[in-house]
């Protein structure tokens, strides 16, 4: 065991865990004042449920030996309850149980991201049911495809993307962001549009400062997300750390510039969105590119995603908090641009087209992209359709108009003189 590596991954795990409340703040500020509690509860509730499932069987599905050697799903019977991970492996640089904890928070964050597409109009119970099943049949298998590597001695077979076609995804552009974005699109289509969409006074962002605070905390957490994925405290983590920092900054500036040129002002919401878009894009590429490549990817993501969020108005789907425009589009950008900007001087040690590597890597990245998008969207759409038929996904129209917080949680974030002091459960002053 290397104590420095252990300390770094412990810290990185805590940083990724912090991304859950950070996302709750980011999403919470973007919704109306009578929707914020539900939005934050969707993040916390979904993440907590997935953590339980991860301990019971999720880790086995994601990182167990591939069933039949096909690279599609891990053996669910290999680590049930994760008790087998308690025995120390003295040959490992970090404890396997620590790696399991680190990856647990990836599953939690990915599930919480999907909630942004359903803001203010989905039953809380239906969301929890959806989140648990979705993680089981969508996230856990895709995590196996992308994050599970075959062992050097061939005794353990990994996922077909990681160990078969060997596509590059350093920290989750496909498994996390594209996966969440495709699922969000499917869920939004099944849920349908919010009442009064797209001109809805009751759904406008109620706290831009909360959005900025959430985005800032997400940025901090992302260093654990990306640099922690090096699984050691060394050169690779250091390169990834730098790439993450400069890409995020370029994305914020690019989005702000596009806003200024198109609409006459650079907004705080745009700055936060540009930051997150670039962080999404650099996630798969952070170990494959130079700092100049990271700057390019961040700037491209900030500019393109600022235009992509308008697709929902042109195509008529209500993606409430732009999960599609930011995470789906940003994930695609970052994953595909690896095929252009990758350099063998970076930790992944492979060249893309611009560095003399040809088009093969671009083709591999495209195959991983298309497959993850198709599986995530298709299975999520089927799941949402079934749940809508069985339990119903939408809250009542009148509850949607007055705000879901009262209907779902019997609470309000901000009480006025007209509001009752008690709404089903005691409210402390």
Task: Give structural notes.
Helix content is 64%, strand content 0%. It has one domain (3-409): Ammonium transporter fold (Orthogonal Bundle). It has helices spanning 3-30, 36-63, 96-114, 124-147, 160-165, 173-191, 208-227, 235-263, 268-285, 291-308, 311-315, 323-341, 360-390, 397-402, 404-409. The longest helix is centred in the last third of the chain and has 31 residues, at 360-390. The protein has 15 helices and no strands. By secondary structure, the chain is mainly α.
Topology of helices and strands:
Blueprint (H helix, E strand, L loop, with lengths): L2 H28 L5 H28 L32 H19 L9 H24 L12 H6 L7 H19 L16 H20 L7 H29 L4 H18 L5 H18 L2 H5 L7 H19 L18 H31 L6 H6 L1 H6 L20
Strand/helix succession: HHHHHHHHHHHHHHH
Rg estimate, integer Å: 21 Å
- CATH level-3 fold name: Ammonium transporter fold
Number of helices: 15
Helical content band: 55-70%
The major beta sheet can be summarized as: none
- Average pLDDT over all residues: 93
Shape: globular
Would you state the CATH class?
Mainly Alpha
Beta-strand residue percentage: under 5%
CATH superfamily: Ammonium transporter AmtB like domains
Number of strands: 0
């Amino acid at each position: 065991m290397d104590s420095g590596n252990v300390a770094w991954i412990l810290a990185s795990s805590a940083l990724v865990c912090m991304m859950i409340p950070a996302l709750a703040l980011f999403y919470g500020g973007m919704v109306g004042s009578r929707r914020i509690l539900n939005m934050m509860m969707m993040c916390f509730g979904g993440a907590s449920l997935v953590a339980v499932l991860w301990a019971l069987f999720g880790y086995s599905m994601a990182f167990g030996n591939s069933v039949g050697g096909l690279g599609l799903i891990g053996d669910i019977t290999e680590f049930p309850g994760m008790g087998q991970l308690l025995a120390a492996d003295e040959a490992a640089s970090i404890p396997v149980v620590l790696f399991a904890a680190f990856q647990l928070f990836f599953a939690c964050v990915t599930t919480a991201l999907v909630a942004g597409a359903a803001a203010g109009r989905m039953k809380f119970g239906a969301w929890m049911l959806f989140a648990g099943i979705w993680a089981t049949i969508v996230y856990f298998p895709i995590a196996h495809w992308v994050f599970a590597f075959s062992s050097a001695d061939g005794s353990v077979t990994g996922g077909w993307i990681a160990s078969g076609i060997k596509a590059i995804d350093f920290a989750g552009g496909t498994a996390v962001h594209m996966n969440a974005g495709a699922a969000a699109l499917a869920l939004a289509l099944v849920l349908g549009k919010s009442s009064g969409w797209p001109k809805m006074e009751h759904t406008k962002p109620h706290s831009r400062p909360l959005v900025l605070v959430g985005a800032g905390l997400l940025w901090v957490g992302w260093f654990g997300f990306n640099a922690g994925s090096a699984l050691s405290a060394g050169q690779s983590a250091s390169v990834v750390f730098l790439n993450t920092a400069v890409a995020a900054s370029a994305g914020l500036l690019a989005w702000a510039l596009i806003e200024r040129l198109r609409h006459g002002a650079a907004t705080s919401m745009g700055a936060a969105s540009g930051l997150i878009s670039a962080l999404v894009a650099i996630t798969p590429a952070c170990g494959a590119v130079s700092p100049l490549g990271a700057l390019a990817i961040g700037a491209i993501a900030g500019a393109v995603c600022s235009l992509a969020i308008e697709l929902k108005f042109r195509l008529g789907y209500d993606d409430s908090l732009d999960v599609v425009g930011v995470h789906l589009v940003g994930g695609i950008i970052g994953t595909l641009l690896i095929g252009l900007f990758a350099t063998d001087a970076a930790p992944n040690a492979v060249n893309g087209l611009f560095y003399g590597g040809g088009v093969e890597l671009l083709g591999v990245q495209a195959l991983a992209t298309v497959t993850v998008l198709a599986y995530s969207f298709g299975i999520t759409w089927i799941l949402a359709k079934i749940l809508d038929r069985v339990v119903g996904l939408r809250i009542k129209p009148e509850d949607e108009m007055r705000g879901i917080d009262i209907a779902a949680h019997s609470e309000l974030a901000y009480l006025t003189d007209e509001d009752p002091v008690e709404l089903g459960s005691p409210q402390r002053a």
